[in-house]
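FIELD: query
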Amino acid sequence: MTEKSEKNTKGRPKLQLDCDQIRRLSELQCSRTEIAYVMKCSVDTLDRHHKDCIQEGKAQGKIKLRRAMYRNAVEKDNAVMQIWLSKNYLGFQDAPPTEDSNSVLPWEESTDDSKK
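FIELD: result
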């Protein structure tokens, strides 16, 4: 009888990937393919083991970008950013809605003959 005192050493060694680096790359909105290239692993490996790091990094990157855009618009009075934000977040448009209305006010006069 032989005892199995040694750990199974068959197969490829497991990759030790730095979650912080993956998160930083994700903050820059790098694609999963680009992150896999930098980390020297497959996209499948990233998806299997580091999906949370990627999602967290992408969310943090969007928050940082949104914060920078807001600061440019509000604190630095950047008119271009104010217009862009107002269109995207407030629903403003370049042109007013086109309506073929001849009346100045949004209601019509009553044609009730009983008041005459």
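FIELD: remark
Confidence is low (pLDDT under 50) at residues 1-5.
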